Amino acid sequence: MDLQIDDFYKDCAAGLLQLYQAFPRRIALYVEDLIGPEQPDEFGLPSKRHESCLAALLWLAEEGYLRYDSTLHFEALDQAVLSEKGFLRMSRVVPHDAQLDQPLPPSLLRVRASLAQQLREALRGADGERLARLARLIFDDRANPQAPSDTV
């Protein structure tokens, strides 16, 4: 089993959600805020889990989902913000995954059907399979054929 991939999905979702909640402001995106405190090794270097989370955030930047000015040692991305691509992916409507069985105003239906809200619920509920399925939608250019301009 590839547990590092499950952690990757969780780290990407948590990082993008923090940026989505702060959008359009720039923030310092701390690894510890995403995965909790991790003890450094005997040489004072970050744990493998900490390194993996930071690597996931850097990968998101390399792939164009977020921008940042610099890293703060191994601790954070400084002045991080969602890119247009990241914002459009997080605000993407995924109605088939939302629980839309109640009559609600259109604005609430839109929020509940957003990928960001569904990722938030999957993280809160520790639903690993749902989180993995939803996180893959972040990276799938074909996931929303009605919005071909959601890639930069």
Please tell me about this protein's structure.
It is built from 7 helices and 4 strands. It is α+β, with helices and mostly antiparallel strands and 152 residues long. The protein has 2 domains: 3-85, Arc Repressor Mutant, subunit A (Orthogonal Bundle), CATH 1.10.10; 92-141, no CATH class. Strands 1, 2, 3 and 4 form a 4-stranded antiparallel beta sheet that branches. Helix 1 crosses helix 3 (48-62) and helix 1 packs across helix 7. The termini are far apart. Residues 145-152 have low confidence and may be disordered.
Proportion in β-strands: 5-15%
Number of helices: 7
CATH-scheme architecture of the largest domain: Orthogonal Bundle
Work out the count of structural domains: 2
Overall number of strands: 4
Mass-distribution shape: globular
Structural class: alpha+beta
Would you tell me which CATH topology of the largest domain applies?
A: Arc Repressor Mutant, subunit A
H/E element order: HEHHEEEHHHH
**CATH C-level label of the largest domain:** Mainly Alpha
| Integer-rounded radius of gyration | 16 Å
Q: First CA to last CA: what distance?
A: 33 Å
What is the helix fraction of residues, given as a range?
A: 40-55%
Quaternary class? single chain
Unreliable stretches covering 5 or more consecutive residues: 145-152
Largest sheet: 4 strands, antiparallel
Mean residue pLDDT: 86
Write the layout of secondary structure elements.
Elements: H1 3-22, E1 27-30, H2 31-35, H3 48-62, E2 66-67, E3 70-72, E4 76-82, H4 84-90, H5 106-113, H6 115-124, H7 128-139
Helix pairs in contact: 1-3, 1-6, 1-7, 6-7
